[in-house]
Amino acid sequence: MDFYHSVIYMYVFNTEWFMWIVVSVVLAVNILVPVFIWYYFKGRSIIQRYKSMKQQGKR
Fold first, then answer.
1. How many Å apart are CA 38 and CA 47, to the nearest integer?
2. Largest CA distance in the chain
């Protein structure tokens, strides 16, 4: 079957709105994944240390 002449390609994959969705998802993933990785490896301990220091300052 010729994929480039199929209905799904012509009216979904080859449209401007679909390409903007793909670009937006790729951009969001590229921004959010490093944040999640940082939080998983280092961020939790840094945030907990900051919260404990803040609690000690209030007393």
1. 12
2. 73
Q: Which two tokens stand for residue 52?
A: 């404990």
Helix H or strand E segment including 5 = none
Measured CA to CA, the distance from residue 59 to residue 50 in angstroms comes to 15
- pTM, rounded to two decimals: 0.66
- What sign results for the dihedral spanned by CA atoms 6, 19, 24, 41? positive
Structure tokens at 15: 């449209």
How far is residue 21's CA from residue 29's CA, in Å, rounded to a whole number? 12
Residue by residue, pLDDT tens for the chain (59 residues) are 789 899 999 999 999 999 999 999 999 999 999 999 998 998 888 888 888 888 887 65
